[in-house]
Design goal:
The protein is of the alpha+beta class. The protein contains two helices and three strands, in the order ααβββ. 17% of the residues lie in helices and 32% in strands.
Length: 104
């Protein structure tokens, strides 16, 4: 138990410890992203405002007993002197098996 307490102290932030390591939901007034900031769009802005796309992948390669592998992309645009982030959710969400290691 002492090892866990030492690790918790090394995190240095109680909210991070609760959210990331204990998987506890944090009340809305402590959330980093305010739900009022989220807007839904039917189409993306014009390509001449496009800056870049970032894709994140959370691999889960244990087969039938694993979590889902998930992929999310963020398209970043510049429009009206603002930077806009368009999240393309659930591009991939399924159980996968890894045939070989990603790094040898």
């Amino acid at each position: 138990m002492e090892t866990v307490e030492n690790f918790k102290r090394s995190i240095g932030n109680e909210l991070t410890w609760q959210r990331d390591y204990l998987l506890r939901a944090i009340p809305g007034d402590l959330q980093v992203i305010d739900p009022k900031w989220i807007h839904h769009y039917d189409k993306l802005p014009k390509n001449n405002h496009y800056l870049l796309t970032i894709t994140g992948i959370d691999l889960a390669c244990g087969g039938e007993n694993s979590d889902f592998t998930a992929m999310v992309s963020i398209k970043i645009y510049h429009e009206d002197d603002k930077i806009c982030f368009m999240f393309c959710l659930r591009l991939l969400m399924k159980r996968c098996t890894c045939q070989r290691p990603l790094i040898d």
